[in-house]
From TrEMBL:
Keyword field contains Isomerase: no
Organism: Solanum tuberosum (Potato)
Domain (GST C-terminal): residue spans on this chain: 90-221
Protein name: glutathione transferase
GO cellular component terms, A-Z: cytoplasm
BP terms from Gene Ontology: glutathione metabolic process; toxin catabolic process
Reactions this protein catalyses: RX + glutathione = an S-substituted glutathione + a halide anion + H(+)
Source organism, top-level taxon: Eukaryota
Protein family per UniProt: Belongs to the GST superfamily. Tau family.
Amino acid sequence: MARNDLKILGAWPSPYVMRTRIALNIKSLAYDFLEEQFGTKSELLLKSNPIYKKIPVLIHDGKPICESLIIVQYIDENWTNFGHSILPSHPYDRAIARFWASYIDDKWFPALRGVAATQEENAKKAATETVIEGLVLLEDVFKNCSKGKKFFGGDKIGYLDIALGCFLGWLKVNEKLNNVNLLDESKTPGLYKWAEDFCGDSVVKDVMPETDKLAQAAKVIWAKIRAQASS
């Protein structure tokens, strides 16, 4: 891997941190991973991201870049001669990819998080239905963007693959802990196969957490979130 002065402030369970790590793997860039502990914020994090105080932060030559999708775009634009392009080459295709990435972050993942965060049966059912409806919608997006190839980005993992794929570990955890089938092969066959291909790709498999390990971390995180919500 190419050596650069690159550091990631992050935590291994975070899907947003995974986006950064996958993008760096695509470009074959080595980096130092500085682990942040859940519930605490290091001085370096507060200094590097004083506005949102959140991970991930990519530090390149001492300069911080924040927000996961912005970081992915920065990596793609800064190392154009390394690996393959992450964002689509055509402006329209880039716009479409960014639109659906925003949908995933603003609407779909909050519903997935709601499946885990709520203990009220009707609210959990509604969140589950929203997640499944979103996956059916994204099945059509996959067909249109992939044009019959393995990934949203074509033959190789691209921007929208990273935007959605980073949540697959948490999708599996929700299925495991809530005894529910969210990514159904009969309803979304394209996405089902895509998920297998994504998780098995060389740029992903070393940073995708094992489901059992992530489930244990999730129990701790969700317990703290529920405690904060009820206090």
